C-alpha cells in the first residue's frame, strides 16, 4: 500500500484562481446568477475548465440567455443515469445487482475481461472472491443527460460516452472496474469517488486516487451565493471516512484507506483488456462529488 497521497482534494477547484476569475466574469455578465441552487452551484464549480472558458467568453444576447437558462432552468435533479445516488437518498434506490438480469454476451465478455485484467481483486482494497463485482463506470446515457453534460463538460472528453453508437458504453471493457461489493456500493451511493491521476505511455498502468465524500443534510434546491466560502479544512473531518461507522481497510496491509490513497490498475494486454477509460473516470469524479455535495432532492426541486 503506497504511502503517497493525492496532491488534490475534493474541493481543489475552489482554490483555482482561473476558475474563480471565469465564474466572476459569468456573474458580472449576468448578475441574476449570483445565487444558484446547490445543484447548479456544484455543476458550475466542477465543470471542465475549457467549457467554463466558453461560458465566460463574450457572446450575443441570445447566447447569454441560453447560459442563464442552462444554470437556472435545467432540472439537474432528475438525471439518474449520470448522477450517482446521493448518500441521503439511499433508501430510494437500490445498488445495481451483483448479477444483472439482462446481460448481453458483449457485457458478459467485458465483465469477464475486466475481472481477469484486475486479477480477480478489488482494485482499491485488494479483496478477492467471492465478494467481487465488475462495476461499470457509466450506464447508457439518455439524450437529456447528454445535452446537460455538453453545457458543463468539454465535448472531447465526452466522446468516450459514444452517443453515436447506440449508447453502448456498457459493452466496452474500458467501462469496467473490479470492486468489492462494499466499495461498489459506496461508489454508487456517492460516498466515495475516484480521481484518475495518470496513465503511462504504453497504456498499461493507470494511477487513481480514492477520496471519501461528505454526507450532507442540505436540499438541492437551496439557493447559495456563487462565491460561498467553503471551509477547505473541513476535508480533514472525513479523511478516514464520512463518519466513524464507515471505514475501508486494505487487505494486504490491514491499514485504513484514507482520502487521497493512490492505487494502480494495470494490464498486460491494452488491446483486449484495456485500462479503464481515463475520460469516463474523470467525468465520474466530477459527477460523484456533485451528487454528494448538492444534497437530497425534494418535492418541486428545480434548479
From TrEMBL:
It comes from the Eukaryota. It comes from Penicillium antarcticum. This is Uncharacterized protein.
Amino acid at each position: 500500500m503506497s504511502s503517497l497521497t493525492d496532491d488534490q482534494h475534493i474541493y481543489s477547484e475552489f482554490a483555482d484562481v482561473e476558475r474563480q476569475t471565469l465564474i466572476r466574469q459569468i456573474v458580472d455578465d449576468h448578475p441574476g446568477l449570483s445565487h444558484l441552487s446547490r445543484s447548479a452551484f456544484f455543476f458550475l464549480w466542477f465543470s471542465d475548465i475549457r467549457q467554463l472558458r466558453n461560458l465566460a467568453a463574450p457572446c450575443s444576447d441570445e447566447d447569454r440567455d441560453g447560459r442563464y437558462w442552462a444554470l437556472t432552468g435545467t432540472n439537474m435533479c432528475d438525471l439518474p443515469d449520470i448522477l450517482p445516488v446521493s448518500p441521503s437518498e439511499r433508501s430510494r434506490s437500490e445498488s445495481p445487482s451483483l448479477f444483472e438480469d439482462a446481460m448481453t454476451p458483449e457485457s458478459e465478455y467485458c465483465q469477464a475481461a475486466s475481472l481477469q485484467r484486475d486479477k480477480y481483486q478489488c482494485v482499491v482494497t485488494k479483496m478477492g472472491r467471492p465478494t467481487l463485482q465488475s462495476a461499470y463506470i457509466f450506464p447508457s446515457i439518455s439524450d437529456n443527460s447528454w445535452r446537460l453534460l455538453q453545457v458543463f463538460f468539454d465535448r472531447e472528453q465526452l466522446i468516450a460516452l459514444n452517443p453515436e453508437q447506440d449508447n453502448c458504453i456498457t459493452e466496452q471493457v474500458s467501462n469496467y472496474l473490479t470492486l468489492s461489493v462494499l466499495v461498489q456500493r459506496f461508489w454508487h451511493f456517492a460516498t466515495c469517488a475516484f480521481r484518475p491521476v495518470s496513465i503511462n505511455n504504453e497504456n498499461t498502468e493507470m494511477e487513481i486516487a480514492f477520496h471519501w465524500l461528505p454526507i450532507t443534510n442540505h436540499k438541492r434546491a437551496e439557493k447559495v451565493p456563487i462565491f460561498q466560502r467553503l471551509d477547505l479544512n473541513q476535508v480533514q473531518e472525513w479523511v478516514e471516512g464520512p463518519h466513524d461507522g464507515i471505514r475501508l481497510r486494505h487487505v494486504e496491509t490491514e491499514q485504513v484507506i484514507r482520502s487521497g490513497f493512490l492505487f494502480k490498475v494495470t494490464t498486460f494486454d491494452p488491446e483486449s483488456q484495456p485500462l479503464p477509460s481515463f475520460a469516463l473516470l474523470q467525468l465520474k469524479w466530477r459527477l460523484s462529488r456533485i451528487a454528494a455535495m448538492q444534497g437530497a432532492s425534494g418535492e418541486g426541486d428545480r434548479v
